[in-house]
């Protein structure tokens, strides 16, 4: 790898560090100091040793790894949720995506990664410190050209500056208060998403989505179960993350009249899932 | 939408159809015929009616929707698995990715979507009929320029033509027979992935990965639990997909010598997952 | 087995029938008629054949099998939930247990089974037809001496006739309306349980339990995942029951004063679960 | 409660202790000393205070609580698994049940609880220290009259002394080595059960069960998901136990001939589960 690369150093017991490799630089760990000059010029996947002789692998980090190691002030989204959000909302090359709030920037990063050089993520955050951290995190991943940061809160009166965006994600505790704004900012048939920890919040969001003519509402949870990678003793690990949040997806549609309501479509929801 | 667009028509009970909109074309359903001329020129998210008066929404399909509706001869990967695979293997703009076998092309499509215009997916398939179907599926999504199809089986002796690829996915019943080929084709520190339905297959694959110096092995399952989107009666749906496959991820690394083995790194696996 | 025994006949594809074996009797199935005279005198676990030559095994039914085959008018509790309820509420020999409503009698049967000859289950049901079915089901299992049936609804004013019972289970859609009655009927420190399908109902019940000084509240779900019993192809089955209900357990306690509240105890709930 | 009662004392943050209440006795905790003379004569569900003023509730322990608090040298079975085992194997009043090995006696206790005064549990253990602990645990619960302890290991040649038992549970790492003994000890059509942590062990057990004419084989896992009992913020807890073991159940049956094989019955397994 080369001077300036972002690298993942993985030591004993899978202890992992994301670092920018610089000439003369080093990583201090409680298993010893790793000198970057020992790394530069070697291929990815090589093993180096700390000054105490402990081995470290040098890997090119995947998006999932980068997101897990992101410096944060807040709860961040897990890769298991992010992967499903990107697929479900069709986030891809060239799209324009809105987000509020930015938080530590984990979903922002993943969306910026997915929209490519020709796409754009516009992200709102009310807290200056938080935005600063997210900016730093996203710059570190080299994705800052794809992200537009806005420092401002949403209020009942003031929503997004944008219109006609492809997708919009609300990572806020009270998304139900801004659904009319989401409706205005999204193009018709666009993709709305949100994540919420409690059932009570989901109920409130479902009411708001119904009120503002969103249809094709899906609510789901992604559960990730790891296994011990032992060929002769293959089994699930003992403990797992049981809950990060409920994911909610919906699409703004045009209703011709209110009698011929969305509920006709909604009623089939479960059956659809089952097939 | 316009002549030539790929659209998702969703009728009562969430019955969904992916169609290419063409002037003069139509979709025949048991709820009546939808004429495409009624659709052309309307915004996404509009509602049209079949000749029997049944409502259909016209939506821009997300990748997840496209993959679910893909014509298929084989079991295809689910969006829940695909989303996690893309994140975990860091599949993104500009990468070169290898796959075997192509199958109906669902993962091929998703990977082609993720690598963007500057990336490439090279996919091997032994059955001509299957490759033909996959070609058709991928062309339909407009992703054919990013995919190179190879019609050939892997054997113990003959592996991939490529070297130094960023990521490689084996969607075959016996990936353990080709791990030496995977090792040769991947760049050091690249991303290996596979999916297998049974525990016995996973055990065999884990042995092969160990034999050919792959480290950082993760085995996991992604479970997706849907909820009824009823604000006053919020609850999980009654039944769910319980198993699609075990996902296996690993990275080819350089070992200096065999005494100082990979197992030192592996032992920490579970702890790492837990934190 | 003998004349008068309750037996489980299991035919091809695990199709199962619970029958009372009587001389001269028979079971008609679409795989032929099984004559009970062919069964009487044979050991449990034997195989007999229908008049069409199809094999049937004759097994002594376990409680779980009996409950699954219970004739029913309503949703019944699943063995996975019943087993956990009995353990969690300490239902055992010699106890006095209250239940409302009886429904088809599945939990009633299980509780009657568990309290033994010296215990008693008193069960309330408002619908005469339902009680009649439950009576028949419980008599069929030979447990009628342990069960007292009451035909009456609970109202805001009129609760249970009993006091000081060991355990009390509410299998009603609105248990939150009767928590003051549950408090009066249970002995201090006794076991309260309920099952509810929706998160909204659970929230209402939690409020009511708090209001009437119940502590040590646990809410959980029991998920049962089956595997294909194939030694060479061991894997989870494709689909599973995703939700039957949320189980809620609590204990009525004595609070000395309201300032020194139950909440001090509650806050540790999750940690306790984690250890 | 009275002198001699077994009580559960629950302090702040749900810290729980199972103790035998004796005149003049006390419990020392890091939240202060609880004097049993303060407890004797009070009703269950009362609150007492330690000498430091910290509150403790005094509850009658349920079987689930007793099992969780059992002093142990080994991994013990969880209540979630025990409850399902008892239901699935039909363990109830008056039955004779075999077990190997005893371990710390948690399943032994639960089975002794379920068979009542007229039933019996016979349990084999090879390690003297372990049996001693189990004896102590079972005596503490007052269930010693229902349990017969045998200090002896099973070998390929020497199996159980008993015949015709109703149910038999193997809680051993290598149950597949003793299936012929299990077959001899169980009555025809009786209930066989086992629990194993790894998929590899399950595969071996499935082979052995097939070899010795066991049918109606079920393999499953019980997952328990707790929720935060907060009415306004109802949601799953963050982390959960992901795996304790795979449960395996089977019944010894009589096969008339080998051509007309068990497999005909087995093939329907999944479908049966699904319906």
Automatic annotation (TrEMBL), chains A, B, C, D:
One of its GO terms (molecular function) is tRNA (adenine(58)-N1)-methyltransferase activity. S-adenosyl-L-methionine binds at residues 104-107, 125, 171. One of its GO terms (biological process) is tRNA methylation. The keyword tRNA processing applies. Residues 57-228 form the tRNA (adenine(58)-N(1))-methyltransferase catalytic subunit TRM61 C-terminal domain. It comes from the Bacteria. Its EC number is 2.1.1.220. SUPFAM superfamilies: S-adenosyl-L-methionine-dependent methyltransferases. One of its GO terms (cellular component) is tRNA (m1A) methyltransferase complex. InterPro entries: SAM-dependent_MTases_sf, TRM61_C, tRNA_MeTrfase_Gcd14. CDD domains: AdoMet_MTases. Keywords: Methyltransferase, S-adenosyl-L-methionine, Transferase, tRNA processing. Pfam families: GCD14, TrmI-like_N. Gene3D superfamilies: 3.10.330.20, Vaccinia Virus protein VP39 (3.40.50.150). It catalyses: adenosine(58) in tRNA + S-adenosyl-L-methionine = N(1)-methyladenosine(58) in tRNA + S-adenosyl-L-homocysteine + H(+). Belongs to the class I-like SAM-binding methyltransferase superfamily. TRM61 family. Homotetramer composed of a dimer of dimers. PANTHER family: TRNA (ADENINE(58)-N(1))-METHYLTRANSFERASE, TRNA (ADENINE(58)-N(1))-METHYLTRANSFERASE, MITOCHONDRIAL. Catalyzes the S-adenosyl-L-methionine-dependent formation of N(1)-methyladenine at position 58 (m1A58) in tRNA. This is tRNA (adenine(58)-N(1))-methyltransferase TrmI. It comes from Bellilinea caldifistulae. The lineage of its organism: Bacteria, Bacillati, Chloroflexota, Anaerolineae, Anaerolineales.
